[in-house]
Amino acid sequence: MARPTFRELTAQALSSVEHGYDLLAPKFDHTPYRTPDRVLNATVRVLRPYGPFGTGLDLCCGTGAGARVLRAVCRKRMTGLDFSAGMLDRARSAAPDGTWVRGNALALPFAPGSFDLVVSFGAHGHFLPRERPRLFAAVRTALRPGGRFAFPLAAPARPGTPAYWSLLAFDTAMRVRNAVWRPPFVMYYRTWPLTDVRRELRAAGFGVTLHPLSELGVRPDGSPRCRLVLATRLPEHSG
């Protein structure tokens, strides 16, 4: 199947987030937005020594790319959650062995302690900074004590580089679009700084470790281009 056309991408961008992804779903896996296999494989490498896990949740699963990670490290039920029915249809077709649930990541429709592992790929930009504490609290509730929450986080582009200006231009254009057009489409690339994310995870009751995803390369100073953030649910009294 061909990639989405410029007209199709424009229609998505002028829709709500949910409807936009419903429109994009049939061609999503042919866009650069699908999580690359090298990111999934690197995540599996880091998680394997901490497993095997029991039940796993792919949060904001999209078309189900994260199922590869859950299959590799979980022994029991594999679940994906997304708010786009179109994306879930694609995930269900690709991985009928999973349980695919339509729902809101900020109000997870699962009993407390349902999962041993929660992963998420490529969804950060859909949550505003003020929503992160609520998101982290929801994930903590869904995890069993000692459960893990894992997601890759890329290093910020260095000021003045082409990547820096490209991401800044995208976020600026999105803010202008949302200021003049309704419904809003929340997607930003520069709103999850590592320092803030670590602090908010700890405040939500997680212990946090960082693991370089060396397969994804290093920056000129030798630091990793991408890390896996691994947050462990602490006991209540450790909050």
UniProtKB/TrEMBL annotation:
Keyword Methyltransferase: yes
A Pfam family of this chain: Methyltransf_25
InterPro entries in the record: Methyltransf_25, SAM-dependent_MTases_sf
Residue span(s) of domain Methyltransferase: 57-147
A biological-process GO annotation: methylation
Keywords for the protein's UniProt record, in alphabetical order: Methyltransferase, Transferase
Keyword Transferase: yes
Protein name: Methyltransferase domain-containing protein
